[in-house]
Design brief:
4 strands, DUF1330 domain-containing protein, 3 helices
């Protein structure tokens, strides 16, 4: 089954976060991830609002978690730490 990687982000340092985004995209693609939403228009209906929301599709939950733990993604994540407030989850799809 496939999986969705869902991130809700408030960027606090645009320059550092830009470096994260530059490195994270290739790391995600390397693990079979494709972006289906990146910071587009949204309507917050419940919970804490974050101005940036990102959704990527992966072949499986395992592939998404392997991506997160990979050296490439962790190197990217070093730039996001301290430059953003984030929540990130992986959800298995029913397809």
């Amino acid at each position: 089954m496939g999986a969705l990687w869902i991130a809700h982000v408030t960027v606090t340092d645009a320059e550092a976060y830009g470096k994260y985004a530059e490195l994270a995209g290739p790391a995600i693609a390397k693990h079979g991830g494709t972006f289906i939403a990146r910071g587009g228009r949204f309507v917050q209906l419940e919970g804490k609002e974050r101005p940036r929301n990102v959704v990527a599709r992966f072949p499986s939950v395992e592939a998404a978690v392997e991506c997160y733990n990979s050296p490439e993604y962790q190197a990217a994540l070093d730039h996001a730490r301290g430059a953003s407030e984030r929540e990130l989850m992986v959800v298995e799809t029913s397809e």
